[in-house]
Amino acid sequence: MGLEIKLTVNGNTHTAELEPSTALVDFLRDTLGYKGVKLCCNTGECGACTIIMDGKPVNSCVVLGADAAGADLVTVEGIADGDELHPVQQAFIDTGAVQCGYCTPGFIVSLKALLDRTKSPTAEDVEEAISGNICRCTGYTKIFDAVDLAAKRMS
Ligand code: FES
Ligand code: FES
Predict the structure, then answer these.
(1) CA geometry: angle 139, 145, 148, nearest 5 deg
(2) Which residues constitute the domain of residue 121?
């Protein structure tokens, strides 16, 4: 028997049914259609499924959908302002911080959460913010360049 929950995603209120064992990542992707939330390791190791839940970045593969009842979520689809990309998104493009792109939504969400908390992050702040995100392509240097550029543009 499914549970009915109500939650907000990117400012939109949704009411939907889910099984008690359904992971939040699956609920977001398969029921609500937020395919920008990526599924990779499914064990909380890689960060591809990162979303912001009530202001904090979380790995949505290790959160039950039922635990998001009443929560306010932000996915990568909710970060741009209309046609204007978030500064982190634009900086990833401008610095070439994307290769295959599978990890990118998770990094963007983690870094947006960081820049919401602090406008001038230190290298340690950035390392800590993306310590749960794995990228197999870029070597990370350009991702750090992107955060620097975004922080400069936002200050
Ligand atoms: S898919 Fe969730 S942390 Fe890897
Ligand atoms: S760009 Fe391919 S895994 Fe990060």
Answers:
(1) 145
(2) 87-154
